Amino acid sequence: MSTVTSRDGTTIGYSRVGEGPAVVLVDAACCFRGGGPMPAVAEALTGYTAYTYDRRGRGESTDRGPYAVEREVEDLAAVVEAAGGSAFVHGFSSGAVLALHAAAAGVPIRALTLLEPPLSFEAPSGPDPRDEITALVAAGRRGDAVIRFQVACGIPEEFTTGIRQSPGWPALEAMAHTTAYDLTITATVPDLGSITAPTLVLDSRGSDERLRGWADGVAERLPNARRRTLDGDWHGVAPNVLAGALAEHFS
User: Fold this and answer.
1) 3-class state of residue 10 by DSSP
2) CB 89 within 8 A of CB 79
3) How do residues 232-244 score in pLDDT, each as one tens digit?
4) DSSP annotation string for 162-212
5) What is the pTM of this model?
6) How far is CA 134 from CA 51, 74, 128, in A?
7) How far apart are CA 110 and CA 193, in angstroms?
């Protein structure tokens, strides 16, 4: 593991594997290098140097308040700088929306791939789940905060049944406070019209219409985007299948 220091002093842990042009992989909510799909994608991405990193407040990265999307953009920019000053970037779910924020902010991104960015262009309705999540974390009910986040995201019940007994549950509890960060990222629409980097917007054939509609909406608003559907499960694509699509787009 290596580390880089973000602008506000936060330490960001990252790893690299492979040889070739740099690709930075941006995790979704509740994921980090010790638990999530990106390490396997990095291993499958032959012909590139793949960088995975722990977003702030996760794994071996530190955290510093108050939270703002701009701080996470600075974290990603610091990893891109460590990767040589510019890089290809792939983001998954809320990590895909974070990658869009970074591109709109001028982080030197050569090209983008986005897997199912949950970016809605409709006005929000109902109570803000971030308030309840923050209150649950403050009360020490970190596990309940994770479940509240999953409900807010509409994750199917079959994916959450028994999750409290899973080996990864302690790590999820440790990251509970960062779920509010992801909801902040996805609640803010970046200036998509300003993003000129060639972008491939992906979805999985096994996902639902809501996820597919969000991907369509992002692709329609980007000036230099293509859409593609890959074989996969609900909100997920096998690492080798995804890596092949990334390599084709970045070549």
Assistant:
1) coil
2) no
3) 999 999 999 999 9
4) TGGGSTTHHHHHHTTTHHHHHHHHHHS---GGG--S-EEEEEETTS-HHHH
5) 0.96
6) 30, 23, 11
7) 16
The mean pLDDT of 114-128, rounded to a whole number, is 89
> How many residues in the chain?
251
2-123+190-250 folds as: Rossmann fold (3.40.50)
Of 199, 209, 224, 30, which Cα lies nearest the Cα of 115?
199
Q: Tally the C-alpha atoms within 13 A of residue 64's C-alpha that lie toward its C-beta.
A: 13
pLDDT tens track for 170-185: 999 999 999 999 999 9
Report which residue type is found at 4: V
Task: Let me know: does 4 contact 12? Beta carbons within 8 Å.
Answer: yes
- Which residues make up the CATH 3.40.50.1820 domain(s) of the chain? 2-123+190-250
Instruction: Characterise 53 by phi-psi region: left (phi > 0), alpha (psi -120 to 50), beta (else).
Output: beta
User: Do 61 and 10 meet the contact criterion of CB atoms below 8 Å apart?
Assistant: yes
Q: What is the pLDDT of residues 54-93, one digit of tens each?
A: 999 999 999 999 999 999 999 999 999 999 999 999 999 9
The identity of residue 12, as a single letter, is I
